[in-house]
Every structure is written in structure tokens, then in C-alpha cells.
Design goal:
mainly beta, seven-stranded mixed β-sheet, four-stranded antiparallel β-sheet, 0% helix
Amino acid sequence: QVQLVESGGGLVQPGGSLRLSCTASGSTFDSDAIGWFRQAPGKGREELACISSSEAEVLVYVADAVQGRFTIFRDVDKNTVYLQMHSLKLENTAIYSCAAASDGCYGSFGSWGQGTQVTVSS
């Protein structure tokens, strides 16, 4: 089973950018799809983006809500999946988490990191 650790969160002004990292340990990372999610205070968890296994044709999903502002990409050599975020808004304040799914981006996410806080504030 893969273990995931997120990093890169912090305080950013509206309109700013952040790059979040999801670094994995474990033998299944390359074969797992990795998704990024967020949960804002008082709201449910929202899926933002997902990237499929690196062992075949790579497929990427990005939610409509962040399309054009967020991108997801994987560095196989560093066992890391990144979420690059631009043009951040106040309402993007949330805990951002990554998760792994052995059965693809539309499968079941069974391994979760602890999350990293992103605060957008002026």
C-alpha cells in the first residue's frame, strides 16, 4: 500500500500561485492513479484533479471549477504528483489532500495523505 505526504501549502494572497506536492512511498505508486481533493470549512470534500497510472497512456482529469487555473502532473523519478494552482481566490481556502486509487481515477481512493492547509487571504 502506498503512503502519501502532502506539502507546499501556506498563506497566499488572492491572485497568487502555489504548487502542492504529494510524495509517495511504497511499491504501487507508479501503478496508482493520484487525485487531489480539498475540503473547505463547513463544506464537503471536492475532487479537483486526477492523473492516471504512469504505466500506460497518462490520462488527466481536471474539475470544471478549477479548469484553466489548476494543473496536475507527475514526476515519476521523484515519486511525486504536483498540483499547480494559479489565480487563487479567497474561496479556495481549504485543506488540500491527495489520495491513491489502484483502479483508476474513477475508482476508489483508499490511501490518503494528512492534508496541507491553503489559506488565501489579503
